[in-house]
Amino acid sequence: MPRTESPSIEPEAQASFRNFIVSILAAAIGIAAGFIAFALYMLIGFFTNLFFFHRLSFEFTSPVSHTLGGWVILLPAVGGMIVGLMAKYGSPKIRGHGIPEAMEAVVMNRSRIQPRVALLKPLSVAIAIGTGGPFGAEGPIIQTGGAVGSLIGQILRTTATERKVLLACGAAAGMAATFSTPIAAVILAIELLLFEFKSRSFIPLVIASTLATAVHFQLIGPGPMFEVGKMSFGIPSGLPFYLLLGLLCGAAAVLFTKALYWTEDQFERLPIDPMWWPALGGLGLGIIGFFVPRVLGVGYETITDILNDRLPIALLLLVLFCKSLALLVSLGSGTSGGLLAPLFMSSAAMGASFAVGVNYLIPSAHLSPSAFALVAMGAVFGAAARATFAFIIFAFEITRNYDAILPLMLVGVIAAAVASRFLRNSIMTEKLARRGLRIHQDYEVDIFNQVTVGEVMEKEVMTLPAEMTVTELADRIAEGDPQVHPHQALPIVDEVGRLVGIITRGDVLRAIGRGEMGKTVLDAGTRDLIVTTAEEPLHDAVAKMLRFDVGRLPVVHPEDPQKLVGYLSRAAALSARRKRLDEEHLREPGWLAFSAWREK
Questions:
Q1: Among residues 454, 427, 458, 455, which one has the least CA distance to residue 441?
Q2: CA dihedral 156, 160, 166, 171 (to 10 degrees)
Q3: Considering 162, 272, 316, 566, which has the largest number of Cβ atoms within 10 A of its Cβ?
């Protein structure tokens, strides 16, 4: 009897059980990531107090009010030197802002992250920020949470896909616990790490992010990340200005991405050991921070001030320019730190400055600087990271202002369109692309899941009688018989037309090589068949071809596996892909027949 599926494939009950186990592990990872995020939060406070105020305290504080004077120029360099030593003698994976490194683990290392990264990454970023680094904690905690999920997946017996889901759960939980943004964390993990949207990953992601946020509520508090007052978004009168802001945000995303990697290129040209690069970047940061203390540290208080319209235009422009420059110099040097918070600050300053400028030129516009600051925050990073949807939700969640959704959506997609036009890779994938890794960030339903075998199979099947000899078949192939010659394999049927086997050209050659020319094709071929049915999704049929290393499948009746109804070859399977290509690229005649509308 032909078999219809592999005995190595787990039954549906076992597949459901694995999903249940992954969800249980996701819950544990979410709770763990919540405590790890809080620990990092406290660790940043500890090093900030130690280095800037010479006191032992875990209270999260800003270095802006320090009294170090000129010594502040050297402090970030010291932090950079420590991070450089940790990268050289600990793990180079601690360099960067975390998310690209997590993406690389998914794509290249089957979602395996080294255990030392889980320890060294949060420690390095705490030292970098604690010595004045203009970074956020989100990227590193995403990488650290992902490392925890990956380690659990390595300790237990899991598939690479299950380990990927656990890594993404840890990353999403880390972000949710840091910013109290569970929805955005789930979406970000889907857009940047999982590259899929399936229940098997969505359910564990939601569990991990929910529990991590609950830990945040308990340890830090349930309020939004930034306390903002009432904002007027000026819809619909402000729509023309939001359109202009979208173009500006897209240009800013392009400019910052190119500038960041240009800065990294300049550091790589230096004739010194890479261990010293973060120290040089820290020295540049210290010089900037001496004149503009607001660029030092995470800068949550400055973002809050901008969102509440407390800063004059001169200070907004100063923050915009100096924070961007400080971030480029320090992060471009290869130190450890998150990109989200500093880019939020500079883009918020840009949005507020835009509104103030328009109000000056057009007094009747009455634009709200705080509203434009909030919208720019989400749009710039979303466009730069190719994660627009995630950061529309993110900007909403960190302020809990639902009125922001409409302008966030409009400005976000315009900025994304501009960035995708001028950036081949995102700010997250450019580094990976330079290493030869191609990250596909567009999502669509696999055409193989939408097409059944019956839609593409060959319905007129050439079959061989079971009593035919190998000599007869070889002669027909050699003579170029048009019924036999085009086929690499042919089904074998008995005297009543029931499917009993299949023979390939390889089987024929082996029989000839062994001198078994008188054998029947049934004895020389294969009786243990891998078959499919017309109702089966093409995806499952192609999966059988790959698992069993066969290039074609007999198509049988679902209730009678010996009743042959068709034949599926590789070429027939690929015809479904050709159909999708035609739908995307073949323009069809429209109602308008004017020559100006015709494609040349």
A1: 427
A2: 130
A3: 316
Which positions ≥6 away from 240 have C-beta within 8 Å?
none
Q: Around Cβ 347, how many Cβ atoms within 10 Å?
A: 32
Is 2 a domain residue?
no
Tokens 């907004």, located at residue: 316
Q: Does residue 595 lie in a domain region?
A: no
- Determine the Cα–Cα distance for residues 385 and 496; give it in Å rounded to an integer: 62
Which residues contact residue 469 at a Cβ distance below 8 angstroms, ignoring those fewer than 6 apart? 517, 518, 519, 520, 521
User: How far is it, in rounded angstroms, from Cα 485 to Cα 478?
Assistant: 8
Q: How confident is the model over 331-376, as pLDDT tens digits?
A: 889 888 888 888 999 999 999 999 999 999 999 989 999 999 999 9
Identify whether the C-beta of residue 329 lies closer than 8 Å to the C-beta of residue 276: no
SS3 labels along 239-284: HHHHHHHHHHHHHHHHHHHHHHHHHHHHHHCCCCCHHHHHHHHHHH
Report which DSSP code applies to 402.
Answer: G
Q: What distance in Å separates the CA atoms of residue 185 and residue 208, rounded to the nearest whole number?
A: 10
Domain range for 402 is: 239-434
pLDDT of amino acid 592: 67
Tens of pLDDT, residues 3-45: 544 333 333 333 344 788 999 999 999 999 899 888 888 899 9
Could you give the dihedral angle defined by the CA atoms of residues 539, 542, 543 and 545, in that order, rounded to the nearest 10 degrees? 170
Name the domain boundary from 154, 186, 219: 219
The pair phi, psi for residue 455, each rounded to 5°, is: -75, -25
Rounded distance between C-alpha atoms, residue 427 and residue 256, angstroms: 9
**Within this chain, do residues 40 and 147 fall inside the same structural domain, yes or no?**
yes
Q: 340: which 2 tokens?
A: 């989200």
